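Shipment paperwork, digital attachment
Item: protein structure file
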Amino acid sequence: MEKAEGAFLTISELAVELGLPQHILRYWETRFPQLRPLQRSGNRRYYRPADVALARRIDHLLNVEGFTVKGAQKALADGEAPTPVVAPAIPATPPRSAPSDRDDILTRLLAIRTDLARAIGD
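Attachment content:
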């Protein structure tokens, strides 16, 4: 059963959604003051939609853009952090090259294949 959009997520649900271990989310809470989920009895964490969006931004900065923790902190504090962008769709059919281009590429690939076969055989 899936939760409704806008419902609070537990730390385990958010960790699964982001593909990260729970301890990483707890670590981020210590490094990013903006990330403050609600904590109920027993220190159970509940991430509001804004917290989930922020966790996604942090994940994007660190694991996609390659920022360091310090760099991501600065980017978030400065408001320069880009929101994760969905990659554009790949066209169904790639653009066709001219027949002479394809023949030239094929000739070069066959030469490389021959050279590799010789190298392996030696």
